[in-house]
UniProtKB/TrEMBL annotation:
One of its GO terms (cellular component) is cytoplasm. Transmembrane segments: none annotated. Residues 1-205 form the Clu domain. PROSITE patterns: CLU. This is Clu domain-containing protein. It comes from Leptocylindrus danicus. Pfam families: CLU, eIF3_p135.
C-alpha cells in the first residue's frame, strides 16, 4: 500500500505527499530531491535511471531491483541468525503503474549514546565495500571477511582484487564492491546493496544480443545464481568493471567470465533445448503445453533474455528452397538463408540427411550461396523445399515449442511496452489513476488480439524491434517481420494469459470464457478488467517460509490437542480443571452438567 501511494503521488509537490522523500540525494524525474522514502521502518527506492548507469533505460534500471532480490535471497539462505553475525534485510519489489519500487527493511545501523542529558546518534562503521561511488574501497574487518569467504564458497564467487579511484593500493574482496558491510553497536554485520551480487555475462561473447553503448550491459545482464553455483571455477562479481582492471588477477577473472559465458551458450542452452524437445507435451495451449517456461529456464540457470537462442535450437523449415547437386557441397539458395537465422556451423536437414554449414572461411557464405561440411549424398534436385534448420535431437515437438517460446517473448515485450506507456503517461499527465491504467492495459490487450486500430503498426514496428532489443536478432527473420502477427495466432490465448499475469490484471470469468471460445480479434472493454493488482517479488527463501508455515500449523495443532481438549472431547458430565485463580473460592465445572456441579474450595488445597 505504501509503495502504491508513493508511485501515485509522484507528481505531487513534496508538501502534499503522504510519504515524504528523504532529504538530499539525486533528483528524480519529478523534481524531488530524492528517490528514497522511509515509512514504518521500511526504506523505499523508486528504480528509475536518472544517473545514466543503465543508459537512460528505466526498464533496465528496474532489473537492478530483481537482481537485488535475487542476491539478497541467496545470501539470506546462508546466514542463519542463530550461528551467523551477518544480518540480511528482508526485501521486496513492487511493480505498479509501470514503475518498480525496491522496499527494504531498515537494518539497525544507528545507535544512541548519552553524554550527560544529551542524546547523540552514532552511525555504524562502513567496513566493507564502497559508499563514495568507487573513490575508496574498504575491507577492514577480519571476522566479516571470514564470513564473506564462507558465503562466497557456497555461491562459487571468487576472491579478487579491486582498487578504488583514489586508493593507493588494491584490496581483496569476496563480493562486489557495491555490496556494503557495516558493523553496528551490537557487533553484528549488516549487508546492504545486493544488486551486483553476481557477475555479469561477458558482452563480447553474446553476439546474438544487441551491444549497449559504453559497454554498460554489464550492469543489467547478470548471470543467474543457479548457473554460477555449478560452474567449474569461482567467478568474480567485479570481473568486467573498471575497479578490477589492470590488477594482478584481472586476466584470470576475465577469462573465467568468458569461459562461463561460452559454457552457458554452447553447453547449458543446447542441453536445455534438448531436454525440452524430449518432454511429453500436453494439449493445453492456455497453460503452455504444460511447460512453465520461466521455471524451466531459471532452474537450468539460463536468463530469460536467451529465450531467442533457445528457440533457434528447434527445427524450422527454411523458406525459398535451394538447388543441390549430388557429390558437391555447394548449395544455391533462392531466398537468403542468412536472413532466416542460418549461420556458419548451423545444422541443416536436407531430405533425410543431416549436414553442417561449412565453417571454412575460404568457402562462400552469402545470401545466395553456402557450402556444406561434406558432399551432398542425395539425388540432385532443383528448388527443393525440404530444407530444415535446427539442433535438437528430436524434432517431433519443434513446431509447438517454437510457437510457445515466441508467444512468451511477445507477451514479455508487450508487458514492457505497456509499462513504458504507463510511465510516459504518468510523466506527461502528472496523474496515475487506476482508471487511466485500465484504459492503457485494455488497449494493449486489444493490440495482442488484433482488435486495436493501431495493431499493424504495433506489431511491425514496436513489437518487432522490441523483440530484437530484448531477445536478440535470432528471434524472427527480417523477411518475416510483416507476418509476425499471423505466426502467433495459434498461441493468442496463452499470450493474453501471460500478459495479464505479469501485469497483475484480473479479468472477469465470463470474459475469459467468451475470449477462450472466440479469441481472434476479441475486443476487451475497460469493464472486463475486474482488478489490477500490484506485482511483488520478495527475498524470503521458500524453504524457510515453508518451515515457518509448518511450525505455525504444528503450534495450532498442539494448542487444540492439549489435555483439556482431549478430556472435553469425550463430553464428561463433570470436569474440574482446577485452573481457577488462586484467590478464587469457587471451582467451576467444565463438564456437560454445568455449574450445578460446581463446588467450593475449602482453603486447605495446594494447587500446583
Amino acid at each position: 500500500v505504501i509503495a502504491r501511494t508513493i508511485i501515485e503521488e509522484m507528481h505531487l509537490p513534496v508538501h502534499l505527499k503522504t510519504v515524504v522523500p528523504r532529504e538530499g540525494g539525486r533528483s528524480d524525474a519529478f523534481g524531488s530531491k530524492s528517490q528514497i522514502y522511509e515509512a514504518r521502518g521500511i526504506i523505499f527506492k523508486i528504480l528509475v535511471d536518472n544517473h545514466g548507469i543503465f543508459n537512460g533505460s528505466d526498464e533496465y534500471c528496474a532489473k537492478s531491483g530483481g537482481h537485488a532480490i535475487r542476491g539478497s535471497r541467496e545470501y539470506l539462505k546462508l546466514c542463519d541468525y542463530t550461528n551467523s553475525r551477518v544480518i540480511i534485510p528482508l526485501q521486496t519489489v513492487v511493480d505498479w503503474f509501470g514503475f518498480r519500487i525496491l522496499a527494504s527493511a531498515k537494518v539497525p545501523l544507528m545507535s544512541h549514546t548519552f553524554e550527560g542529558s544529551e542524546m547523540h546518534e552514532v552511525n555504524a562503521d562502513l567496513i566493507m565495500g564502497t559508499a563514495d561511488r568507487g573513490q575508496h574501497v574498504l575491507n577492514k574487518n577480519r571476522d566479516l571477511d571470514s564470513e564473506m569467504g564462507r558465503i562466497a564458497n557456497e555461491l562459487n564467487l571468487a576472491k579478487h582484487y579491486v582498487k578504488g579511484e583514489s586508493d593507493l593500493g588494491a584490496r581483496s574482496l569476496y563480493s562486489s564492491v557495491d555490496l556494503r558491510g557495516y558493523e553496528n553497536i551490537n557487533g553484528n554485520f549488516c549487508l546492504l546493496n545486493f544488486w551486483r551480487s553476481f557477475p555479469s555475462e561477458h558482452p563480447s561473447y553474446t553476439s546474438h544480443l544487441p551491444r549497449s553503448h559504453r559497454g554498460m550491459s554489464i550492469f543489467w545482464r547478470m548471470l543467474r545464481p543457479e548457473f554460477v553455483a555449478k560452474f567449474c571455477n569461482p567467478l568474480s562479481p567485479d570481473a568486467n568493471t573498471q575497479m578490477a582492471a589492470d590488477l594482478a588477477d584481472t586476466a584470470l577473472h576475465q577469462k573465467n567470465i568468458s569461459d562461463a559465458t561460452n559454457f552457458l551458450l554452447n553447453k547449458i542452452i543446447p542441453s536445455l533445448a534438448d531436454e525440452i524437445a524430449n518432454m511429453k507435451l500436453e494439449r493445453d495451449k492456455f497453460g503452455g503445453f504444460g511447460i512453465d517456461v520461466t521455471a524451466v529456464m531459471h532452474r537450468a540457470g539460463i536468463n530469460i533474455r536467451h529465450l531467442g537462442i533457445v528457440r533457434a535450437h528447434f527445427w524450422r523449415k527454411i523458406d525459398g528452397g535451394a538447388d543441390i547437386k549430388f557429390g558437391t557441397s555447394r548449395v544455391v539458395t533462392h531466398k537468403s538463408f542468412i536472413a532466416q537465422g542460418v549461420r556458419r556451423g548451423s545444422k541443416l536437414k536436407i531430405g533425410q540427411d543431416y549436414y553442417r554449414v561449412s565453417t571454412d572461411r575460404k568457402k562462400e557464405f552469402n545470401s545466395s550461396e553456402l557450402h556444406l561440411d561434406r558432399p551432398f549424398g542425395g539425388n540432385s534436385c532443383s528448388c527443393t523445399d525440404e530444407v530444415f534448420a535446427g539442433e535438437v535431437s528430436n524434432d517431433e515437438n519443434s513446431e509447438r515449442v517454437r510457437a510457445l517460446l515466441l508467444a512468451e517473448m511477445v507477451a514479455r515485450t508487450m508487458k514492457n511496452i505497456a509499462r513504458q506507456h504507463l510511465r510516459s503517461l504518468c510523466l506527461r499527465e502528472k496523474c496515475s489513476s487506476e482508471h487511466l491504467m485500465r484504459i492503457i492495459l485494455a488497449d494493449h490487450l486489444n493490440t495482442l488480439t488484433g482488435s486495436n486500430s493501431n495493431t499493424e503498426e504495433m506489431w511491425t514496428e514496436h513489437l518487432y524491434f522490441g523483440l530484437s532489443e530484448r531477445f536478440g536478432n535470432c528471434i524472427i527473420s527480417r523477411a518475416d517481420r510483416f507476418s509476425l502477427f499471423d505466426r502467433t495466432r495459434s498461441m493468442l490465448v496463452y499470450m493474453v494469459n501471460r500478459f495479464s499475469i505479469m501485469l497483475g490484471i484480473e479479468i472477469k470469468e465470463e470474459t475469459i470464457k467468451s475470449f477462450s471460445h472466440y479469441p481472434d480479434y476479441y475486443h476487451f472493454m475497460i469493464s472486463d478488467i475486474k482488478f489490477v493488482h500490484a506485482r511483488t517479488k520478495h527475498n524470503i527463501y521458500s524453504a524457510e517460509f515453508a518451515d515457518a508455515m509448518i511450525l505455525s500449523a504444528r503450534s495450532k495443532l498442539t494448542s487444540t490437542t492439549s489435555y483439556s481438549f482431549e478430556v472435553k472431547f469425550d463430553n464428561p458430565l463433570v470436569y474440574w480443571s482446577f485452573s481457577d485463580s488462586k484467590t478464587s473460592s469457587y471451582a467451576h465445572n467444565e463438564g456437560s452438567l454445568g455449574e450445578i456441579m460446581g463446588g467450593k474450595y475449602s482453603g486447605k488445597e495446594e494447587l500446583e
